[in-house]
Amino acid sequence: MYDQFDQICSRCPSCQNVTSRILSRYWRTLKVIPILTLSVILHVQSRKFFCDNTDYIQRIFNERHTAKMVLP
Ligand SMILES: [Zn+2]
């Protein structure tokens, strides 16, 4: 199962500044969900952002994802 988020911006976890400066993209495994005899693996494309706020030391951060699965 693959998911790709199309938000342009992300909020810096240190200063709450909203930035659209993307440094890189990568795929990561977010969750493995056992369904009956199968294992469903949720992959997301994640991004690293750069924050322009110079008041904080951490200026590079990974965007955060949350997974929610709804069964019928
Ligand atoms: Zn920041």
Can you tell me about this structure?
The model is unreliable at 1-5 (pLDDT under 50). This protein has one domain (2-62). It is elongated and about 50 Å long. Strands 1, 4, 5 and 6 form a 4-stranded mixed sheet that branches. A two-stranded antiparallel ribbon has the order 2-3. The chain is built from no helices and 6 strands. It has 72 residues and is mainly beta. It has strands at 2-3, 10-11, 18-19, 22-35, 38-50, 60-62. 0% of the residues lie in helices and 50% in strands.
Q: What does the average pLDDT come to?
A: 83
Strand content: over 45%
Quaternary structure annotation? single chain
> How would a crystallographer describe the biggest sheet?
4 strands, mixed
Which sequence of SSEs, written as H and E, runs from N to C? EEEEEE
The tally of strands reads 6
Q: List each distinct ligand once.
A: zinc ion
Radius of gyration: 15 Å
SSE-based structural type: mainly beta
Task: Report helical residue fraction.
Answer: under 10%
Please give the domain count.
1
Q: Given the C-alpha coordinates, what overall shape results?
A: elongated
Q: How many alpha or pi helices?
A: 0
**Span from first to last CA?**
17 Å
Low-pLDDT runs of 5+ residues are 1-5
State the gist of this model.
The chain is an all-beta fold and 72 residues long. It has strands spanning 2-3, 10-11, 18-19, 22-35, 38-50, 60-62.
